[in-house]
Write a structure and sequence with these properties.
Layout: E1 15-21, E2 24-34, E3 45-50, H1 61-70, E4 78-82, E5 106-107, H2 108-126, E6 135-142, H3 143-154, E7 159-167, H4 193-207, E8 217-218, H5 222-225, E9 243-247, H6 251-264
Parallel strand pairs: 3-4, 3-6, 5-8, 6-7, 7-9
Antiparallel strand pairs: 1-2, 2-4
Length: about 270
Amino acid sequence: MAAPQPAMMLPRELVNDTIALAHKPSAKIQYTFAPERHAQSSPPRLIVFLNGLMTDKSTWLPVMAGIIRRHGDDGYPSLLAYDRYGQGLTEDQDPQDQGRENGRGHDVGDVVRDLHQLITQVDKDRVSRNQRQLHIVFVANSIGCAIARLYAEWYPGSVEGLLLLDPMMASSKFDWWPDPDSDDFVPDEEVTVEVLREQRRKFAAMFAPDVINKEGLDRRNLADLLPHSDQPCLQGPGSRGPVLTVVEHDPLKFASESFQVCRERPVA
């Protein structure tokens, strides 16, 4: 079932549409787009919003609406958000998943190739119409940050900026808490062994790379695709690298919100 859109009045500049990628014509992707306004940027720019694993494009619509309302007079570049296959309003599963292991039909590399095709088609139809080279700015959250990083690596010279919000550690197995059953475990008076075991179990049940998700995105090889946090050196347009900004959630606020989410979505 598709995720509901937020109950808010959106600017008329935001257009919801569907698109079939040229290399996967049997399935359609839902996306939201706003054309540039008074930007007259040369080369043209496109801000692309990339979802996390447990969210969809509806989370970006208030942000897109805010950009339009705040910068309507002085202008803004084109804006794009979309739901990946099997996510949000995109009810079609990735055609590539057919005949493959359930829930493990495609990986982040496949998502990056799909994203490149989506941007290519949107650019041709709605942005520069292939007249000038497009400069891309990614605004990403969680696993969307890994997608943005890999895109910038695989398509050098195309990404002008990266705004990474709470980026995931792509090379991690999310085994962050001390293991009370390991030989070198040192007990802590403030945290019991039972609490540690339960926390490790709950977190692994939600975020471990081998956990199956609704969109069928296989994350088991993500550490192979992005083995380093500081390599390789990314190349942006021209001779400069993309402008990088990393924003971390306030840890206390994040803990409170995560606890609330876990209560609303109990882990089986």
